[in-house]
Amino acid sequence: MNLRSLPDRKPFLTAALALVALAALAAVAISAEPRAKELFGARKLPAVAPAQSFGFYSKGCFTGGVALPMDGPTWEVMRPSRNRRWGHPAMIALIEKLSRDAVADGWPGLLVGDVSQPRGGPMMTGHASHQIGLDADIWLTPMPRRPLTMAQRESMSATLMVDEKTHLVKDALWTPQHTRLLKRAASYPEVERILVNPGIKKKLCDTVTGDRSWLRKIRPFWGHDYHFHMRIGCQPGSPFCKAQETTPDDDGCGKPLAWWFTEEPWRPNKNPDAPKARDLLTMANLPKQCLDVVNAPDAPSLEAVTYHGGSAAAVAVAEPQPTGPAETISSGNAAMPAAESAFAPTPKIGIPLPRPRPGN
Ligand SMILES: [Zn+2]
Questions:
Q1: Ranges assigned E (strand) in the chain
Q2: How far, in Å, is the centroid of ligand 1 from the Cα of 313?
Q3: How far is the CA of 83 from the centre of ligand 1 (A)?
Q4: Which positions carry the signal peptide feature in this UniProt record (predicted)?
Q5: From ligand 1's centre to the CA of 129, what distance in Å?
Q6: pLDDT per residue over 150-207, tens digit each?
Q7: pTM for this prediction
Q8: In angstroms, what is the span from residue 116 Cα to ligand 1's centroid?
C-alpha cells in the first residue's frame, strides 16, 4: 500500500466504513425481527377464545387449545417438559377416545407424544407441522403396566420398529395389536391421514386382509419409526383453517410405496445445515390472525384449560346437553364469558359443537 495515497483514500474509507456499519445495522434489524417459533414457544398457556385453527398444519396457530391431562386411565403423556400436550378440543377428545378404544382392542394404553404448543405455531425443535392443534404423535410402544414417573417419561426411549438399513419392520417387534391400533385410528372419520415409516406401511400392505380401505389413510413418510402421526381435518368453526389435499382413492401399496424402497429418498441431504422453514418463519409469514393469537392474554389457569371431557368426573358434573337446534346452543354460549364457553367440558361421546367466534 502506498502511504502517500492514504489521505486521498480517507473519505472513501469513511464512506465505505459507514456503508459497512449501515449494512450491519440492517442485518441486526432483520435478525432482530423475532422468529415466530420464539414467540409461540414462550407462551405457556392457550389464548382465551373459542377453539379455532388458523392456516395450515405447517404454517399456522390456534385458539381455544386444551391440554390432554398428564395421565388418564388409558394414556400417559410422554416428554411432559416440552409442554406440547395441547390441541384443538376435537383432537384431545379423539386422543382420549382412541386410548379407550385401543384398550378395548387389547392394546395396553397409549403413550402420547407431541400434540401442539398451547397456541400452536412453529416450534423451537422438531416438527414442521403440529401448528394448528390437529396433529398428534402416538408412540408405537405400548403403555407399560406400571405407571411411569415424570422422570421416566422424559428419559424412556422408544422402540424403533424399523431397521434403519433395510427400511423394513423388525418382525420380532411387530404384533397384530400394532396393526389393530393403526386400523382403529384410521377408522375415525375426522382422521384424514396417519403418517408412518414406509416400512410400517409396507408391513400393513403385505399383511392386512379383508377390509383394506383404511390403508388409504396410512401414508409413508420419513421418520415415524417409533410413533405414528395422526392428523385430523379442519374442524367446524375454523373458516380460516386450510385443508390438505385429499389422499388418493387407493390403498397406496403400489408404485408410490415402491419408491420408498429405492435409493432416492434416502440420499444424504446435500445441505444439512440449511435452516429449516420453522427456523425462518416470522409473524409476517403466518396467517394474520396469529399475531393476535400469540399476544392474547393467558387462560386463567392450567386447570381451567385442561380437558376433562372424557373423564368420569367431568361427565358426572356436566349438564345434560341441549338437543335442540344449534342456535339455542350458541345463544347460550354467547351469554357466557368467553373463557367459559371455550373450555366448557365436552360430553364423552361428542366432538365439541362448532362455536362461532364472537364478532365473525
Ligand atoms: Zn408428528
A1: 52-56, 59-63, 66-67, 71-72, 75-77, 86-87, 110-112, 135-139, 191-196, 218-220, 227-232
A2: 30
A3: 15
A4: 1-26
A5: 7
A6: 999 999 999 999 999 999 999 999 999 999 999 999 999 999 999 999 999 999 999 9
A7: 0.78
A8: 9
